[in-house]
Amino acid sequence: MAVTTTPIRLQEAFAEAGVTGRLHAVDIDTGAEVGVGADQPVVTASVHKLCVLVTLHEQAAAGRLDLTEQVECPPGDRTSGPTGLSAMLDPVRMSLRDAAYLMMAVSDNTAAELLLARVGLDAVNATTARLGLGRTRAVHSFREMFASMREDAGPGGAQALTDPYVIARLRALDPARTNHSTPRDMTRLLGAVWRDEACTPEHGLAMRRVLGLQVWPHRLAAGFPFDDVHVAGKTGSLPTVRNEVGVVEYPDGGRYAVAVFTRAARTAATLPSADSVIGTAARMAVEALRAP
Q1: Residue 6: its pLDDT value, please?
Q2: Taking every annotated instance into account, which residue ranges of this chain make up the domain Beta-lactamase class A catalytic (predicted)?
């Protein structure tokens, strides 16, 4: 598949799945790239946890914190979410690096909040600025984001999030008013992590390891169902929003950073076609980059 024709094919795949898609894919070693709306602002949702992870390791490398440092998590002070600490009922004590594992592997919102409290939102923005991600910014914590959604949804609560009129007024779905980035910024960040430019090699290895432990196989990884192809990534989800960024590594040494951000026309929480097109689009882009 020629790189020059790939954007058209990608747009067709997104349209068939019922989503608006933005994508950027880049060969980490050669710089060859494929994009569709690569510089358009997008809602990051939980993809922004990657920025928190990089900031955590940057501070550890600088000696400002110890990744084995223990943090307390009482049951009455947890951010909403269906996984990890957010779903647990009893007091928990764990290290910063174990909280980072939960934040990345199962997208634990409470673990992310613990780490944000330790490193600070300003530090996250300083890290992304240092790495040249000029269109990436954390506007608020994940707890604050969910609070804005409850406020915007009104008395209808979670059930109101199937109403298109409610969806249209959610600040959390407006890149201008929530945590945001672009597909190109996210592949630039992934490339920096994989080339050990974001941090020291020791910390780069630790970040790559935890990204490879994500448990969700239904988006980016679904496009590469091969035993010898390794996919490491981070998803992000909000009403109508399904995202994933990650790196696809082939046994011949090829490695490709891919960022896919989608918005669905339908408000249903379960849309298999919207999930699977992330893997489909990523595979199309990577195959174009690998074509002779």
Answers
A1: 82
A2: 23-262
E runs forming strands in 63-214: 70-73, 92-95, 180-181
Q: Are 84 and 113 in contact (CB under 8 A)?
A: no
Residues 102-120 pLDDT 10s: 999 999 999 999 999 999 9
Percent of the chain that is helix, strand, coil (3-state, to 5): 50, 20, 35
Average pLDDT over residues 47-76: 97
| Residue 189 scores a pLDDT above 60 | yes
> Per the structure block, which two tokens stand in for 123?
């530090």
Q: Is 172 within 8 Å of 117 (Cβ atoms)?
A: no
CA distances from 12 to 3, 15, 205, 228, 291 (A): 15, 5, 37, 29, 20
For helices 6-17 and 272-290, give the axis angle rounded to 10 degrees: 170
